[in-house]
Amino acid sequence: MPTFPAASRANARRLIEALPRFLPQDDARRADAVQSALLDSGLLDSNDLGNSPAVAAATRDGLTSLAHLLDEDAPGHGAGQLLLLLLAERNAFTPHPAPDTLQRHARDAATALLHLALWHTDDLLRLLANALQVHAEEALNSSTERP
After folding, report:
1. CB–CB of 31/116 below 8 Å?
2. Structure confidence by residue, pLDDT tens digits, 62-72
3. I need a labelling partner for 5 at 20 to 30 A (CA). Which of 22, 67, 77, 78 fits?
4. Dihedral of CA 43/8/14/105: which sign?
5. Looking at the whole model, is its pTM more than 0.85?
6. Which residues 6+ apart lie within 8 Å of 7 measured at CB?
7. Left (φ > 0), alpha (ψ -120 to 50) or beta: where does 92 sit?
8. What pLDDT was estimated at residue 50?
9. To 10 degrees, what angle do helices 52-71 and 78-91 make?
10. How far apart are CA 4 and CA 138, in angstroms?
């Protein structure tokens, strides 16, 4: 996983672009589509297909990248925004202000990643918490580094 938020945001953009707008309803085909998007984004290596720890790590890295992407418009708030968007979708409410296009795409990508993670980890909450922790550490490191 890149340690610089700019590289992480680029991964997130590639992930969003690689995900089909309408994911298959069949669980196995959906998982394949998300894994393919992880491959296309560079977050997953083709040697790691089927390796649950590697896929879980790529999923975590994807979530971290999405949080960095959301930081672009709201510096320091990307992780919280991602969590709010996921909770809003899960509980069927619309946050105020309503999510813009980028936020909706980030939410959809995060939801797809979490769905894939169901196949590769027993603890989705820990995976999400780890992604948000990595995001916080990377954001802090990038803000304290001198050019």
Report:
1. yes
2. 999 999 999 98
3. 22
4. positive
5. yes
6. none
7. left
8. 80
9. 110
10. 7
Q: Which tokens hold the place of 109?
A: 């990508």
3-state secondary structure the chain: CCCCHHHHHHHHHHHHHHCCCCCCCCHHHHHHHHHHHHHHHCCCCHHHCCCHHHHHHHHHHHHHHHHHHHHCCCCCCHHHHHHHHHHHHHHCCCCCCCCCHHHHHHHHHHHHHHHHHCCCCCCHHHHHHHHHHHHHHHHHHHHHCCC
The amino acid present at 99, given as its one-letter code, is P
